[in-house]
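Supplementary Methods S3. Complex input for the nicotinamide-adenine-dinucleotide-bound model.
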Amino acid sequence: MQIDEKLIRNVVEQVLTRLGTGGDVAPVGGGYQGRLGLFTDANQAAAAAREAFERLSRCTLADRKRIVDHIRRIATDQRVELGTMEMEETKIGRLPHKIDKLIGAASVPGVEFMRSEVFSGDHGLSVIERAPFGVICAITPVTHSLPTITCNAINMISSGNTIVFNPHPSGRRIAAEGVRRFNEAIYGDLGIDNLLCVITEPTLESADILFKHRDINLICVTGGAAVARAAMQQPKRAIVAGPGNPPVVVDETADLDRAARSIILGGAYDNNLLCIAEKQVFAVDSIFDKLMAAMERAGAVRLNASEIQALTKAAISTVGEGDKKHDVAHKDFIGKDAAVLARAAGKNIAPETEMIFGETDESNPFVPVEQMMPFVPFVRCRNVDEAIEKARISEHGFRHTAIIHSTNVHNMTKMGKALDTTIFVKNGACVAGLGNGGEGYGSYSIAGPTGEGITTPLTFTRERRCTMVDDLRILGK
Ligand code: NAD
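Predicted complex, serialized as structure tokens:
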């Protein structure tokens, strides 16, 4: 793909200049119209989103669809520029995937997904409709800053909500620029501003103000363990899309070339930043060496034991004291290219290499740590039962995502039951579980801990029932 780097740099500079003052502009016309969703003050952002919610509540479903179409169009048409800005700011992942993710985010379910339920019987008719919560506080991760905002905005506005985003500080500029562009188009067309608001200088304090704000009706967080815990401690409902550490099991019945291609497709995507991405593989002994050869045939580069040891030393650190002591991925290596990791392992490889891999046992920290790097450890197991059990332990009970390559339905069923994950993919890459190469729809917020699953517009609704007694049923007696 041809990218005009100079143009992108100019746009980034303009945005940074604008954001330097954007949050402090005084409200226009007595309200917050004209701010295009940019706020430094969390209280003002909540008030603006509340005002926007009142306006959205007076809109038709056709208006909502028009609003969502603007978001879809901008994310799709401007994906190269926006994806490049996200890459330049966050400095993690791979540029083609930053661009590609905006297309995925733009195609999540929208207004067309809304539906009502009807109970019709001798006593008349009851209709159950899906109403908005109101204003949602959404926390978004650095791994997919604008894609998560795009996806959440389409889902949440489709069901009639407005949103205040508190993005990750390292992805705040692209978050603000995306929100500004979405609002500009919506305001220009429908005269409603601030359906999406964003804190331009987000902090833990601004998140806490929003969590506790009386104008915020619902919390939706997408991120790791700390934010998941913080959201679940709030005295209002939280939808929590938390961390994962997806294991892969490969048994003796698998198509090994297909398994290798799938592991690379999912595990190397955006340098393994996806929460659903293949993070560690447990393969049975009888096919282990053949699987390793299939990985090399598919383009991944194998590290030997001493190279893995060097990489582990560089890329994994130990933090905390006493019983809080644990391993974490080193920030300098998260989302970096395979060639950068290989260099730390003492090996020079082609810069376009998508993934490096090698044999470890389950005690290597790359197995339990959600590493978010395109190095995937492969653990040799005696049989499928041992592989499933080790996979279960490595997933830490997050119940997020698991993958198996097998043609034995019994083994698939055993693993599905044992891991109990929100997403379980068989014979494909992890992304197939989000409709990319598999059936179904996608989302950037997979709510495991609180149980909503792959979020849709319906996730962000309250049920309301409207009952007509003894009338309106047009059937029978
Ligand atoms: P992170 O947990 O460091 O940050 C996520 C967001 O939470 C950021 O906006 C951050 O500022 C905020 N945050 C962190 N601690 C907080 C607290 N105590 N109170 C309020 N806000 C807080 O994660 P990251 O590095 O940005 O993203 C990667 C993590 O997110 C991985 O663990 C990944 O699995 C997870 N993730 C999950 C999903 C999902 O759908 N389940 C999707 C994407 C990423």
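Residues 318 and 326 are 5 Å apart (CA to CA). Residues 139-143, 167-168, 204, 207, 222-224, 226-227, 230, 241-244, 275, 370, 444-446 surround nicotinamide-adenine-dinucleotide (CB under 6 Å).
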